[in-house]
């Protein structure tokens, strides 16, 4: 079941921040390109199967029916809504991202 993937402005800002950090602070443009490529791949995979990732077991996310797609060291938090998947945020896995009340 193909669906439309929507990137929120928060997700875009998170991705931009990660790319800037990898490219500028860590001086690794290859790592920055890699995370962009992984995000694009996630978009394609989730578009083809929005329910591929189970609803999160983290209490707040579970209550909101959020799903987590894990990248290399990062996680995309998204939700489904009919024939749409909405990419909400992108976090580094070391962050305590599941306690945010957003």
Largest sheet: 4 strands, mixed
Query: According to CATH, what is the topology?
Result: YaeB-like fold
CATH class: Alpha Beta
Shape: globular
Write up this protein.
This protein has 102 residues and is an alpha+beta fold. It has one domain (4-94): RelE-like (YaeB-like fold, 2-Layer Sandwich). Helix content is 41%, strand content 25%. The protein contains three helices and four strands. The chain has helices spanning 9-25, 29-48, 59-63, and strands spanning 4-7, 67-70, 74-81, 84-92. A four-stranded mixed sheet has the order 1-4-3-2. α1 (9-25) packs antiparallel against α2 (29-48). The longest helix is centred in the middle third of the chain and has 20 residues, at 29-48. The mean pLDDT is 93.
Furnish the topology, listing elements before pairings:
Elements: E1 4-7, H1 9-25, H2 29-48, H3 59-63, E2 67-70, E3 74-81, E4 84-92
Parallel strand pairs: 1-4
Antiparallel strand pairs: 2-3, 3-4
Helix pairs in contact: 1-2
Task: Provide a quick synopsis of the model.
The protein is an alpha+beta fold and 102 residues long.
Label this structure with key terms.
alpha+beta, YaeB-like fold, four-stranded mixed sheet, 25% strand, 102 residues, 3 helices
